[in-house]
Specification:
The protein is α/β, with parallel strands linked by helices and about 650 residues long. The protein is about 30% helix and about 25% strand. Bound molecules: 5'-O-[(S)-butoxy(hydroxy)phosphoryl]adenosine. 5'-O-[(S)-butoxy(hydroxy)phosphoryl]adenosine binds near residues 405, 489 and 514.
Length: about 650
């Protein structure tokens, strides 16, 4: 099924009149193209250099390297100057009792005050600041305030546990944490400050904790360390001149091995890319009310709630709550209330609202919508069709945007005025993006109608620059399996029209409700309790989450716990080590795991069992103990 591009295609910013020309310049003269695109930002010193990168070791990626600018000045000051009364942020609280319109002039005042506060706590250019906050305007103020003074922020999603928080604080060497007393999501209180206190029992380096009082709860404060945020609006903080390649933020993300990696993004290239993709892909114009439902704790929140839209002087919605609270019509009501015209969300949210039933759409018109977006995982055809026909009433193109924390911005997506839509396909690369499909040996598969590993053979300004503190790991993870390419870890198919269809991760990474989790990380967490000796974690198809987490565990022979107790222990250990987002969906206590004679766990076999694809298991005679396979199948089928 193909949904042709809208008949009024010419009204889109990018349309059949200008697409081809832009596409050609980007392809033939990428450096000139990107330098031209950098003009959308205000520079203190405009760069003379464009891209300067190599994907062979030593890997090095630089964009606009002799440019100087300030990210906050680009997102705030210049609009406070030109359109002071325009709404920058519309904030909607969890309960639905408060809607706050924050103008660019007010945003400047607030960000300036937050920057002054951080300076008072001793934060200087280059220092790392951990931000562990709910979706309230202050999280945007804190991020932009860091950018204003040249500090590097690392936002940790509020759903991560104190353990995870401590690991990130330690890894980036932060001395200051910005948090809130509590968060509220779906009516539930989240003890953010208490979590910070627990994390700081493990890491001594943090000198100051800045606490925004969001709820009325009084939380214990440590004298000399903890400070209640009280904005001072009378002190001007001048935006620091920042080199284009100075770091803007670190964001931790899971991979197939080891602990989460600190993905480092820098300034000039990142903002050029976030702002351009936001404007052109969502067709965001002056009067649009744009809403991306992501939490600021993820890359989508960074690039498409805060940096991209604000760099463009747009109006961006920040929502504190969740899609099904108090009812599954929450998002649709907000769309009507605020007259949202561009709406960007995740397949997992779409599927859960679809399951809640069409009656929840009936009391709203969603008449204001004109462009819809999807991100985070492949969107299945059924969810796409529902989103298109029911939510968008067949009036709004859907941009299915493929990208990653590492890519900084969207790489593969339809442009609403240019491309025909195919449900479930992310379609075409954005300007200047050069995807390739590689076979197992790393050869490019050049014909269409091919399937392979998705890699990029050229850099783009939004690309991550390194793993914070470990450039070797950066090279190893992304550039060593297929030298000369950035390897995404995803598999994809390309059809006869050259459109891309993402088929999911090809490594040991799970995508649960659009959140990325490493199997190794969950396995390590689960074995921290002494009653568990070994675990293996695999994903399985889940109707709402996309992928669910299945844990196979071997218990210690000395344990006196029964099955249910062991399962509870595993669940709780994972939740406390990583956070509720990594809660397993199914746990099986088994006597052994399928291993090769050299001791390597054959996850492939467990994946077949988890998917009930028993016929695909194949020959098990080379396993150290072939009989464990039947044993595990027995346990999973009996659901014990
Ligand atoms: C992984 C990146 C990018 C922001 C949110 C997640 C999967 C993302 C799509 C899409 C198919 C997608 C990929 C990718 N993914 N968008 N439109 N179609 N798959 O960021 O946590 O860095 O995860 O999400 O597997 O590698 P992330």
């Amino acid at each position: 099924m193909i949904y042709p591009k809208p008949a009024d295609g010419q009204s889109y910013l990018i349309n059949s009149n200008n697409y081809r020309q832009l596409h050609q310049v980007a392809e033939v003269e990428p450096n000139a193209f990107w330098l031209d695109m950098a003009k959308r930002l205000d520079w203190m010193q405009f760069p003379t250099k464009s891209g300067n990168w190599q994907f062979q070791k030593p890997v090095s990626i630089k964009w606009f390297e002799d440019g100087v600018l300030n990210i906050c000045a680009n997102c705030v000051d210049r609009h406070a100057d030109s359109t002071p009364d325009k709404t920058a942020i519309i904030w909607v609280n969890d309960q639905g009792t408060i809607t706050t319109y924050i103008s660019y002039a007010t945003l400047l005042k607030e960000v300036n005050a937050m920057a002054f506060s951080l300076q008072n706590l001793g934060v200087q250019k280059g220092d790392r600041v951990i931000i562990y906050m709910p979706m309230i305007p202050e999280i945007a103020y804190a991020m932009l305030a860091c950018a204003r003074i040249g500090a590097i922020h690392s936002v940790v999603f509020g759903g991560f546990s104190p353990e995870s928080l401590a690991g990130r604080i330690q890894d980036c060497g932060a001395k200051v944490v910005v948090t809130a007393n509590e968060g509220i999501r779906g009516g539930k209180l989240i003890p953010l400050k208490a979590n910070v206190d627990k994390a700081l029992l493990q890491v001594a380096q943090v000198k100051k904790v800045l606490v925004v009082n969001h709820t009325s709860t009084n939380v214990p404060m440590v004298e000399g360390r903890d400070v209640v945020y009280a904005p001072n609006y009378n002190q001007a903080v001048v935006p620091e001149p920042i080199n284009a390649e100075d770091p803007l933020f670190i964001l931790y993300t899971s991979g197939s091995t080891g602990k989460p990696k600190g993905v480092l993004h820098t300034s000039g290239g990142y903002l050029t890319y976030a702002s351009l993709t936001h404007q052109w892909i969502f067709d965001c114009k002056y009067d649009d009310i744009y809403w991306c439902t992501a939490d600021a704790g993820w890359i989508t929140g960074h690039s498409y709630v805060i940096y991209g839209p604000l760099a463009n002087g747009a109006t961006t919605v920040m929502f504190e709550g969740v899609p099904n609270y108090p009812n599954p019509d929450r998002l649709w009501k907000i769309i009507d209330d605020l007259k949202v015209s561009i709406f960007y969300t995740a397949p997992t949210a779409i599927r859960s609202l679809m399951q809640a039933g069409d009656e929840w759409l009936q009391t709203t018109s969603r008449q204001s919508l004109r462009v819809l977006g999807s991100v985070g995982e492949p969107i299945n055809q059924e969810a796409w069709e529902w989103y298109y026909h029911q939510v968008g009433k067949a009036q709004c193109p859907i941009v299915d945007t493929w990208w990653q924390t590492e890519t900084g911005g969207i790489l593969i997506t339809p442009l609403p005025g240019v491309h025909d839509l195919k449900p479930s396909s992310a379609t075409q690369p954005f300007f200047g993006i050069q995807p390739v499909l590689l076979d197992e040996q790393g050869h490019e598969i050049n014909d269409n109608s091919a399937e392979g590993r998705l890699a990029l053979k050229a850099s783009w300004p939004g690309q991550m620059r390194t793993v914070y503190g470990d450039h070797g790991r950066f090279e190893e993870t992304y550039f060593s399996q297929f030298p000369g390419y950035y390897f995404s870890g995803d598999g994809a198919r390309r059809d006869d029209d050259g459109d891309y269809w993402l088929t999911g991760r090809v490594d040991d990474v799970l995508n649960v409700s659009g959140h990325r989790l490493g199997t190794a990380e969950i396995e390590t967490a689960a074995t921290l309790d002494h009653s568990i000796i070994e675990t293996a974690v695999v994903g399985f198809p889940h109707a709402i989450k996309g992928e669910g987490i299945m844990v196979f565990a071997i218990s210690a022979s000395h344990t006196t716990h029964n099955l249910e107790e062991l399962k509870a222990i595993i669940k709780n250990t994972i939740r406390s080590q990583i956070g509720p987002i990594a809660s397993p969906d199914e746990i099986y206590i088994v006597k052994g795991l399928p291993k090769t004679r050299s001791g390597k766990i054959m996850r492939r076999i467990l994946r077949c069992i988890a998917r009930s694809e028993f016929e695909k298991i194949g020959d098990v005679s080379t396993l150290a103990e072939p009989s464990v396979v039947d044993h595990i199948i027995g346990i999973v089928c009996a659901k014990t």
